[in-house]
Amino acid sequence: MFFDKTAETMPRKELEKLQLERLRRIACYCYERVKMYHDKFDSVKFDPYKIKSLSDIKYMPFTTKADFRDNYPFGMFAVPKRDIVRFHASSGTTGKPTVVGYTKNDLDMWSDCMARLVTAAGATADDTVHIAFGYGLFTGALGLHYGLEKIGATVVPTSSGNTEKNVMLMKDFEATALVSTPSYALHIAEVIESMGYKIGEDIKLTLGLFGSEGCTVEMRDQIEKSLGVFATDNYGMSELIGPGVSGECRERSGLHFNEDHFLPEIIDPLTGEVLPQGERGELVITTLTKEALPVLRYRTRDITRLDYEPCKCGRTHCRMDKTTGRSDDMLKIRGVNVFPSQIESVIMTIPQVAPYYELVVDREGNADTLEVRVELAAAELLDSYKNLEQLRENVKHRLKTVLGIQTKVSLVEPKSMARSAGKAKRIIDNRKK
Ligand code: DLL
Predict the structure, then answer these.
(1) How confident is the model at residue 433 (pLDDT cuts 50, 70, 90)?
(2) Which of 52, 84, 89, 93 could staple 137 via S-S, CB 3.0–4.6 A?
(3) pTM of whole model > 0.70?
(4) In 24-137, at which residue ranges do the beta strands (DSSP E only) sit?
């Protein structure tokens, strides 16, 4: 099923022609309207009127999160405030939020992009979709909301939190699809069980439209088992639009980019060089059609690779692998690169532990230490010290095999870790204190 078959199955050559036309247009548009781009282009003598091929993009300067901070709140906008019809913002860990704005056309483009992705994931006008992302300045809830309404699905905008009420409404309104972060989906499953509801009888979900944070295939399996859904992944970020940048089709062999609106590249995060097709590196994205806040060569910090082979679903737009994490989430432990997703994939395959974990990084003397705290799946496991020790050693050994370094493993009581209603925060890096 397609929402916009012509666009989604456009032959590669035609698509690249369109991308080039749009790249030229947006580069000139930014140069003429946004002082920051004008100055950046001039400083490296980049002439937007002379772009000849898509690969000329490599001469264009990058945009980073710091540019948003330095131009807070409206310095990067390309239209007067009266043309803005909506603001969103991402919270950020320190200081001011990142402010993003949309014109009326931007909102139309956004809901079209979202409509394509939810259709690719299998949502239809017959679905009742429970949206358990936080409504508000976060882009997730309203992004999915408008895309789903566009395809005629019935939207239930409950927001995240108050999980028992969420579950009650899911049952009473007979929700068939759930929108949430993967970590919140796991918590919802836990609450469904504690309320005594049966999956398939009281809760009739069949589809999960998840995203906004990393989720390994192993964690996805757990979510599918506990909620009875087919789980799909959606990727995006506020600076670029929100969700709607890329998402999985039913083949689930990568997340299809909306490539006619978002042009992806993969670069070496250290040198900034564009990497050859198929290599893993940092994802950089250029918005090709946004009016209010066009963003050129945005360094996402997310690590992935792109696949340009046609997909079995018929879509021609390239696919990105699930991200292995953000380059700034990567932990350097005693010189070894560790991605939290590697740890997650180990934890999710050990049945005696629950899918809730935390990583505590510290420094003892000059050496980094990594403690993996993970919840036990059942209280009975606490009855035998010997069995607990065996389990701890098993987790430790499996982590050593995957990461190549020793970790400290702490098994904590079932249901003792904080549950998240949004993006889970799993890393505590005491070295930064
Ligand atoms: O999380 C937008 C979004 C909302 C995407 C709902 C999908 C669904 P931000 O809050 O700005 O925007 O966070 C963006 O979240 O750079 C990634 O590191 C991470 N992220 C988003 N989606 C995924 C995903 C929204 N599917 C940052 N897998 C991005 C892994 C993701 N990480």
Answers:
(1) low
(2) 89
(3) yes
(4) 86-90, 98-102, 128-131
